[in-house]
Amino acid sequence: MTVITTHLGELVRQHAWELLGRAETKRLMDGLNESHPKLLEELVPKLLTLARLAAFSNNCCASGFNTDLATILEVLLETASMNKNVVALVEAFAPGFWRGV
Asked: Cβ-count burial of 73 within 10 angstroms (0-12 exposed, 13-18 middle, 19+ buried)?
């Protein structure tokens, strides 16, 4: 059972970007709104639309990005005011955040 659970968990991590869409991003933001309401208020939709945030999240998952959502949004808040390009936003994160670095 442990081997199957571990294998399924790894498959979900590898394909998370395929599972993460606009609706899932909205649910994640709603959950984070309880603990970080000001952060979300400053970011969505003032700096990034939900669609752009979903595209950003999707790119991060596809790239193997691995950190907590609050940290991601804090960096986005700093970066999105200068550049809203999704690829540039993904590249703006410090290399230490990337899995395997």
From this structure: buried
Does residue 58 contact residue 24 with C-beta atoms inside 8 Å? no
| Local confidence pLDDT in tens for the 101 residues of the chain | 899 999 888 887 777 767 778 898 899 899 999 999 999 899 988 898 888 888 888 877 777 776 778 888 888 888 888 888 877 787 776 544 444 33
pTM of the model: 0.71
Domains of the chain: 2-97 (1.10.8.540)
